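During the second year of the project, the team shifted from modelling isolated chains to modelling whole assemblies. The rationale, set out in the original proposal, was that interfaces cannot be judged from single-chain predictions alone. As a representative example for this report, we include one of the complexes processed in the last quarter. Its constituent sequences, exactly as entered into the pipeline, are reproduced here:
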Amino acid sequence: MFQVERAYKFILYSSLIIYIVSLIWGLLFTQEDFVQGNSYRIIYLHVPASFLSQSLYISMAVASFVYIVWRVKLAAYLVISIAPIGALTTFIALTSGSIWGIPTWGTWWQWDARITSTLILFIMYLGLISLHSSFSNYEKADKLLSWLAIVGAINIPIIKKSVDWWSTLHQSASITLTDKPSIDPSMLYPLIGSMIGFFGIIISLVIISSKYQIFLREKNKSWIKEYV
Amino acid sequence: MKYLRLEVLKLRKKTRSWLGPILVFWLIMLAYPLTIEVSPKNLEIGFFSVLWIAILLSMMFATEDIFTEDYNDGYLEQSLISETSFSYLVGLRVLIHWLLIGIPISLLGFVFSLGTTENLSLSLLILPFAMMSSYIFLNLFVLGNSLSLNKGSVLGAIITLPMALPVLIVLGKSITAIQLEINYSGFIFLLLGSLSIIIVTIPIVVSFIIKAHLE
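Output from the structure prediction step:
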């Protein structure tokens, strides 16, 4: 536990430094976009948040599966620990996207497939939190939450492929695993830095949230008393 | 067949459970013209949106107490230990609800569509969309109500409504395609594909969820 304590602090502080450096690099030292001007610089917040909002849901669904199949208690703690952080990152993604939409599309909101499916993801996160909090029996709440998280995972491929399946205002991905990035390298490197930094910050938050869950659920165990 | 007859009888006996959603649908469709200046052109503009939302809400009401009574009187526990597969029983119950509530609502939707648009071919096309969407919505709300079994149907509706929104989007797009006379068969296959996956998976998931409630 003490090693974890040191580890997450190290991850948190180093990620914060990486993120701030990347943000300054992206905001002040990269060139203006030919079409979008300076408004594109919001990608250093929007892209990491969007990417993580989906990744967190996938991790939640995987943890739910682990809990349902192997009854690993820590997996259940992880699911409910991730939910509020997932909701937060999705909210950041939606808000930053709306701010970006005003100068780029001329509107802050459009009911297109990508934006709507991300909003659905946000409501899903809130639904998961409210479902879990409505049961006083934690074990039952964990099981129901896990089932809902697994079923709700259907939304993730819909979000991912929405820009390909429907004609949307939202642009398709500039960085993919298979193709060469369509973004200029001078903008790409700070973006990668901001993604790594943001990822580290979120991981640290998940660790803190999981720690809280463990304390809450195991509060009557002797090892917790020794630890505290 | 024994279970089929039993489920039909149970739902028929609870008049409020099957008649209520149909009346709710009817009232929403009747209330729609009252909210706008009545002219055929005005009515047509938002008609289909109201139709899909009315179907959605009716299906929400239809599943409001689909398991509550059986949970309270112990019938669900009995069903769980019976020889027949529990997921099969859940699927059967959803099917009965669709036959007694979803189908009449879809037919009413056709009648309202014909009355509003005065276009028989368009209204006939609405019918399969209404039938498929009502079955999908029914399954989704059954999932929600199984999750919030003894916590009220509002929670169940909140957690499953987001999953119903993509269906609403597809329905809206399909109407646009039909009205613009472009190929809409893709939307039918999309709904049909989703429905076939949902029909199989939701009863299985619901059976596991109910087991979790009863453990």
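Chain B touches chain A through 20 residues (CB under 8 Å). The first helix of chain B runs from residue 2 to 13.
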